[in-house]
């Protein structure tokens, strides 16, 4: 297979930029491997404490001659995707014994649901919950009584947080264990339609609630292709799942056998055997680029323009938005899954799913085949779909053609020759835009700005009819340092309504937009953010703003002399309540979005 020249060039760029930090990271995990988990060296009292909580495995743990797997779980039964994990640990302990190992729950980490907190104060804790999860993962693995780990998490901040913490213990072999999507309910398109009707006052609250419950109706991830399901696509492309584990539904025989296989595989890749595969060696520059390619080829969540750089930095790898932009111009769009199409992730899986996309990208030289993966068969194995054949788990070859060309296509006949991402630059700073679901005639918007400081103000202006015109809605002081960079999810319905009415509309913000954002052009993650002097703080109502995804520009069309002389708008005072005050230190120390928006990584100089 010949690697595409742009994939090779971007990878070389990442390798060169990461040379010093990656070398330091590999030295770290080398030292940790030499002095790390070694239960025979631990004191007897230390071991007794570690074994006291487990009756059924104590005799197996005592000799120290078998792998002990630490389970880090993000279980709770308020978050549908994580409710499936309730009985996983007890099952995994049995499967570990089958494989000649043992397993213990090393710790639990929080898992908040952005779907619950969207539009409310709790959302200001969301991004920093990722750092909290990373810290919790580090605490769980700090006991030095594990020779491997299983990471149980699926959703938005949980997978990135688990990896950010786990990579600091990168000498251990690890596997990500997903739980799968809920079965399809009310279609995402119909759900979005009811939301827009409600925003216009044409549907009442009861109708809206019934639609939402019909869409989000059972255990498993939400069925749209937002941040959670984009996580799963990236984990497949990095080789950190058992191949094909992403979208098998909960409660099925296939899902159970994939989880069993994950435990068995961990027992095979420990450092005492001949197939040692430590996490820190698996997550290298090529694996990070693979994740970016998979995201672009499927029109995945813009949130990963923050999360993937943060994951990468935890492994000493530095990727930036320029890399994403360059890759996007070379990587074709191979999937249309809501909000980039009408299909949900279950239909995506039925049509070929991640395996079909990965196989096609490998065939086109647009994904690195030679990375170290959890699977023995390497990346090629992730281009096959798992199935139960008889009583056994198998990975038969996929058909040559897609199961539904309206959802997934081959490398020879993509939906678009380019991926769904652009970087925007100009006198307002640097921002990201997802264009995979935006019609081409809306890639350029030039209109007067209306400036707001929170999304509630936007909703009020919309209801008052003040936005019924061509407008660039600007929502500032929404960056990591200002208020924790909440997703501005509640803006999606009113902006969609304005666009449906025929107005030319765009959003510009230093905050995040939902991972499921779609048809309205949105310049997001604008850096530097307003707090601390970002130029977005200079904008005034009526300034004409030009956003152009085609040329990659984002500019306030204000005379340079006037622009340079303007003062920055004062920041709103920080808000307390809902625990927001407890995260003040994280806000104060947070990096810019392009560096991952992390206080933890910034403080650690990663």
From TrEMBL:
It catalyses: 6-phospho-D-gluconate = 2-dehydro-3-deoxy-6-phospho-D-gluconate + H2O. [4Fe-4S] cluster binds at residues 155, 222. It is an enzyme of class 4 (lyase). It comes from the Bacteria. Belongs to the IlvD/Edd family. GO terms for molecular function: phosphogluconate dehydratase activity. It holds the Pfam family ILV_EDD_C. NCBIfam families: edd. SUPFAM superfamilies: IlvD/EDD N-terminal domain-like (SSF143975), LeuD/IlvD-like (SSF52016). Catalyzes the dehydration of 6-phospho-D-gluconate to 2-dehydro-3-deoxy-6-phospho-D-gluconate. Pathway: Carbohydrate metabolism; Entner-Doudoroff pathway. Residues 67-380 form the Dihydroxy-acid/6-phosphogluconate dehydratase N-terminal domain. Residues 407-596 form the Dihydroxy-acid/6-phosphogluconate dehydratase C-terminal domain. Keywords: 4Fe-4S, Carbohydrate metabolism, Gluconate utilization, Iron, Iron-sulfur, Lyase, Metal-binding. InterPro entries: 6-phosphgluc_deHydtase, Dihydro-acid_dehy_C, DiOHA_6PGluconate_deHydtase_CS, ILV_EDD_C, ILV_EDD_N, IlvD/EDD_N. The gene is edd. Its cofactor is [4Fe-4S] cluster. Binds 1 [4Fe-4S] cluster. Its EC number is 4.2.1.12. This is Phosphogluconate dehydratase.
């Amino acid at each position: 297979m010949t690697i595409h020249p742009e994939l090779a060039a971007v990878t070389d760029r990442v390798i060169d930029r990461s040379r010093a930090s990656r070398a330091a990271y590999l030295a770290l995990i080398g030292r940790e491997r030499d002095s790390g988990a070694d239960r025979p060296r631990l004191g007897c009292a230390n071991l007794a404490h570690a074994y006291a909580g487990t009756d059924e495995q104590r005799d197996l743990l005592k000799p120290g001659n078998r792998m002990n797997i630490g389970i880090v779980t993000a279980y709770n039964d308020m978050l549908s995707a994580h409710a499936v994990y309730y009985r996983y640990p007890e099952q995994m302990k049995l499967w570990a014994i089958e494989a000649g190992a043992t397993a213990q729950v090393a710790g639990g980490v929080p898992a908040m649901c952005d779907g619950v907190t969207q539009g409310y104060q709790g959302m200001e804790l969301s991004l920093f919950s990722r750092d909290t999860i990373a810290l919790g993962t580090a605490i769980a693995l700090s006991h030095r009584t594990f020779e491997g780990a299983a990471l149980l998490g699926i959703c938005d901040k949980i997978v990135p947080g688990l990896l950010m913490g786990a990579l600091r213990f990168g000498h251990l072999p690890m596997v990500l264990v997903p739980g799968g999507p809920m079965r399809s309910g009310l279609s995402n398109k119909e759900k979005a339609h009811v939301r827009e009707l409600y925003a216009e006052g044409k549907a009442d609250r009861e109708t809206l609630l019934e639609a939402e419950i019909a869409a989000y109706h059972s255990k498993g991830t939400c069925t749209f292709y937002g941040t959670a399901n984009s996580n799963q696509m990236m984990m497949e492309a990095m080789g950190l799942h058992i191949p094909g584990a992403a979208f098998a539904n909960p409660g099925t025989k296939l899902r159970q056998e994939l989880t069993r296989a994950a435990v068995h595989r961990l027992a095979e890749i420990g450092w005492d055997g001949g197939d040692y595969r430590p996490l820190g060696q698996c997550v290298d520059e090529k694996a990070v680029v693979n994740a970016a390619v998979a995201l672009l080829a499927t029109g995945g969540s813009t949130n990963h323009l923050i999360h993937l750089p943060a994951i990468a930095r935890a492994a000493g790898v530095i990727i930036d938005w320029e890399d994403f932009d360059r890759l996007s111009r070379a990587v074709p769009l191979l999937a249309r899954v809501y909000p980039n199409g009408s299909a949900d992730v279950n239909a995506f899986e039925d049509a070929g799913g991640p395996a079909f996309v990965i196989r096609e990208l490998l065939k086109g030289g647009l994904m690195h085949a030679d990375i170290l993966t959890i699977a023995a068969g390497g990346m090629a194995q992730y281009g096959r779909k798992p199935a139960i054949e008889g009583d056994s788990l198998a990975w038969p070859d996929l058909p040559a053609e897609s199961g539904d060309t309206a959802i997934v296509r081959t490398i020879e006949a993509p939906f678009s020759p380019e991926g769904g991402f652009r970087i925007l630059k100009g006198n307002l700073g640097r921002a990201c835009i997802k264009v995979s679901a935006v019609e081409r005639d809306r890639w350029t918007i030039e209109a007067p700005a209306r400036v707001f400081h929170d999304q509630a103000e936007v909703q009020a202006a919309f209801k008052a009819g003040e936005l019924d015109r061509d407008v660039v809605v600007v929502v500032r002081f929404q960056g990591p340092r200002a208020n924790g960079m909440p997703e501005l999810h509640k803006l999606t319905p009113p902006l969609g309504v304005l666009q449906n009415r025929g107005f030319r509309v765009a959003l510009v913000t230093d905050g995040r937009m939902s991972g499921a954002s779609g048809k309205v052009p949105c310049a997001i993650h604008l850096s530097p953010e307003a707090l601390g002097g970002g130029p977005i703080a200079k904008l005034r109502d009526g300034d004409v703003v030009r956003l152009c995804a085609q040329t990659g520009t984002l500019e306030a069309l204000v005379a340079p002399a006037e622009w340079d002389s303007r003062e920055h708008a004062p920041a709103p005072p920080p808000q307390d309540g809902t625990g927001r005050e407890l995260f003040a230190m994280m806000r104060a120390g947070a990096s810019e979005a392009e560096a991952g928006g992390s206080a933890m990584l910034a403080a650690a100089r990663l």
